[in-house]
Amino acid sequence: xxxxxxxAYLVLSIAIGLYAATRVHNxxxxxxxxxxxxxxxxxxxVFATWFGAETVLGISAxxxxxxxxxxxxxxxxxxxxxxxxxxxFARPLYRMNLLTLGDYFRVRYNRGTELxxxxxxVLSYLGxxxxxxxxxxxxxxxxxxxxxxxxQGMMIGAGVVLTYTLFxxxxxxxxxxxxQMIVIIVGLLMVxxxxxxxxxxxxxxxxAAHAEGKFEFLPRLEFVDMVGWIAALFTMMLGSIPQQDVxxxxxxxxxxxxxxxxxxxxxxGYFFFAAVPLxxxxxxxxxxxxxxxxxxxxxxxxILPTMVVEYMPFYMQVIFFGALLSVIMSTASGTLLAxxxxxSENVIRPFRPRMTDRQLLWTTRxxxxxxxxxxxxxxxxxxxSIHTMVExxxxxxxxxxxxxxTAGLFWRRANSLGAALAVAFGLLTWLALxxxxxxxxxxxxxxxxxxxxxxxxxxxxxxxxxRRSNESGAAPAAT
Length: 479
Hints:
Order of helices and strands: HHHHHHHHHHHHHHHHHHHHHH
Strand content: under 5%
Number of strands: 0
CATH topology of the largest domain: Sodium/glucose cotransporter
Low-confidence stretches: 471-479
CATH superfamily of the largest domain: Sodium/glucose cotransporter
CATH architecture of the largest domain: Up-down Bundle
Number of domains: 2
Shape: globular
Number of helices: 22
Helix content: over 70%
């Protein structure tokens, strides 16, 4: 019965997404929803950027193991990224009226920078989307009482998200996400209230977590620990800024004010609501410590869904799994679309300069389908946890793309040579340290970020001053 109701909800989501697809008439509708989205929809979409599988299943499991110390990257770094993007980056990027971040790198620097950084952005999504697919597999496995394997669940879930994303693009993502966010907020709050009652009350749960030291989040006053803490924060906070999905949500806003404040408020909302799954996870520990210990040895990501199935009344199970599927699908649809758009617009299209708008739309849809197959295969093959896959996704963009984006927007002296050296220094340093298994102070991606900044400064000072040449000192508006 529960599985049948969940299937009905999935069918309804597909129907809503396909209805939204009727508003797609060209590639700009598909990629940016015609820049027509109002404030509530933008807030919901930004909130859904990270409120996905890693928030409900990933970081809640990490919280049980490591406490707040294990959550520096997400939700702290993730929410700071969204607030920083809204207050600092959203306004100048929105004014350029571009389709992708790759377009920005071409307009501000050159085609080579566009190609390399667009590929980096596409690759960074592999782990992120795979994390959502993995979570869908876990949900179907739990709901079916092992009748559907995790692998089969991954394929079913990926197929559902692909169906409405393929046809409706950003319009489908926007409309389905708005509906799903209502289900998420109402559903999780109701389930949390039930869990708190079973665990002895809100104060009991919080006191027990505090007594166990779960709320400690600052690093120890040791160099290695402090550097590791900073690396975890910066990887998500800065590495997520040069990402197409965040940019796409900002760029779909109806006006500049919505772009700025929709992003900022969405980030703040994410930070506070991310505490709900943490509370749920610790409530499970108080309700059934043996179950939590047993599942921690197998897969700690199963703790929440198992607790709901075994201890919640039927109507609460329906609410929880409906909310959980909403969480995963809202994130998965946006993160499927973003790399696909980047690949078709910034990798394929420049090699076919006479491509019509209709051909670009068709190419983007085909790329969505191919990328879905790739990430599903990766999710099946990998053994990494959901939280680890998401954490690792932003290393490449931190080392390679953050400095060229930031310098291009806010330093008039930045030029194409500086961008080239920033990309080369950052990526090569990061890759070399990863390959040799660097274990010294600092993380490879953080050292790569420093090398990228050095490359930008050296190249921009040695190269021609864009203020005295044909290059524009500030990022020009796109036509």
